[in-house]
Amino acid sequence: METLKALIKRYQVGSLLLLTLLLAVVLPLSLDIFRLNLVGKYLCYAFVAVGLVMVWGYGGVLSLGQGVFFGLGGYAMAMFLKLEASDPVSTKIQSTPGIPDFMDWNQITSLPALWVPFESFPIAVLAVVLVPMALAWLISFAMFKRRVGGVYFAIITQAVALIMTVLIIGQQGYTGGVNGMTDLKTLLGWDTRTDSAKYILYFVCVALLIGSIVLCRWVQTSKLGTLLLAMRDKEDRVRFSGYDVANFKVFTFCLAAGLSGIGGAMFALQVGFMSPSFVGIVPSIEMVIFAAVGGRMSLVGAVYGTLLVNAGKTLFSESFPDLWLFLMAALFIGVTMAFPMGLAGLWEEKIKPWWRLRGLARKEEALRLAAAHAAYPEVLPPRGKADAGGPAGQHAGLHEGMTGQSA
After folding, report:
1. Would you tell me which of 229, 246, 252, 401 could form a disulfide with 379, CB atoms 3.0–4.6 Å apart?
2. Which residues span the domain enclosing 407?
3. Which residues contact 345 (CB under 8 A, 6 or more apart)?
4. What does DSSP assign to residue 298?
């Protein structure tokens, strides 16, 4: 039993079960399909926030370019979906049937070699994870092996996000340009626009997100997680102990990139398009905000932070279309100033200690009453009678008991 309790505490099973119950039961039963589809979109961003908890919260490396990996995963899936939607029958009015419409508009007459592998669904699924991880490996290996970190690494990742955005927009004939890839309607012949399909994609997204959290929690509780915390706080000491710090940072950064790619792919499936507006600097910084609001040390908190910020964005933009940006800024500034460790920090540092103290006070009161009852068993009437008699009746009984003992 003690071992089971230790495992539950170690892997934070309670908070994970509560999150699963909220996402898999409460929200689907209480929201219509439009709102539930919005939540599914928010959960796609949560993959990035969970990855940021690993690379920023545990690894101590702030990345301001996670939108790049989100976009790469999204574009990998969008390329497959776009090719499926561009069959010769559907594109027979084009000058060159069988290729995406934006290629035909840019006078490309054959499918580029880069696109050919994405005619296969298994290859596209592998690319969703491997392409972001490959780019993350190139960036992190080049930087961490040269001991580049801190604010310099953050600026470099921000520059990568800007470069990737310019590259995607500039290569309009191959990427769809500023409009991105639109009209993504089917997956292997399955219409993803129906309500039933949206429900299925939502639950798939929830399952993948919970699996990602379990994977990251396993890493956190392993020896690697301990080393990551040690590297974050005292990197030189870990290096002097004989560990290759750069390799651990590279692994964590690649893990976060792979999770971001999965989120991007699910976004393309649920929303039906992918554009460079999800790749650049602004979305990358927003993703950092999700993790900061939820708590950069909490995997579950990152999900709640993502839901809170995006729900606030939707609510404020619908209710206050002219002021919603200011309200979102006030929300973020207020939360980060009042709770530097985010919502998870609020729970750990404020609510949980208060709840424990309240429980201890109740236990002490129960022990005091039990001791009094043991000392004067005839003094304290049963709880029902004591409650019925009220405080006056209890004091009267106590007085009579004391008088009787004195006699």
Report:
1. 401
2. 377-407
3. 295, 297, 298, 339
4. -
Please give the structure tokens belonging to residue 315: 């609510």
Instruction: Please indicate, yes or no, whether residues 159 and 33 belong to a single structural domain of this protein.
Output: yes
Which is nearest to 201 in space by CA: 3, 43, 92, 45? 43
- Does 382 share its domain with 288? no
Q: Residue 405 and residue 51: Cα distance in Å, rounded?
A: 70
259 and 387 in a single domain? The answer is no
3-state DSSP call for residue 182?
A: coil
Position 295 in a domain: yes
| Domain closes at, from 248, 267, 300 | 300
Per-residue pLDDT of the chain (407 residues; tens, 9 = 90+): 445 444 445 546 778 899 999 999 999 999 999 999 999 999 999 999 999 999 998 888 888 999 999 999 999 999 999 999 888 887 788 788 888 888 888 888 888 888 999 999 999 999 999 999 999 999 999 998 888 888 889 999 999 999 999 999 988 888 888 888 988 888 888 888 899 999 999 999 999 999 999 999 999 888 888 888 888 888 888 888 888 888 999 999 999 999 999 999 999 999 988 999 899 888 898 899 888 888 888 899 899 999 988 988 888 887 877 777 777 778 777 777 777 666 766 655 666 665 666 666 677 767 776 766 666 665 555 555 445 445 445 444 444 444 444 43
Asked if residue 275 and residue 148 are part of one domain, the reply reads yes
What CA–CA distance (Å, rounded) separates 109 from 140?
A: 38
Residue 391 and residue 275 share a domain: no
Q: Could you give the 3-state DSSP secondary structure of residue 181?
A: strand
One domain for residues 183 and 71: yes
- 308 part of a folded domain: no
Whether 249 and 398 share a structural domain: no
Number of domains present in the structure of the chain: 2
Q: Please report whether residue 28 resides in a domain.
A: yes
Neighbours of 268 (CB within 10 A): 30
Tell me whether residue 391 is in a domain.
Answer: yes
**Which residues contact residue 267 at a Cβ distance below 8 angstroms, ignoring those fewer than 6 apart?**
41, 44, 45, 70, 74, 274, 278
| Nearest Cα to Cα of residue 342 among 53, 42, 13, 67 | 53
Q: 268, 283, 300 — which closes off a domain?
A: 300
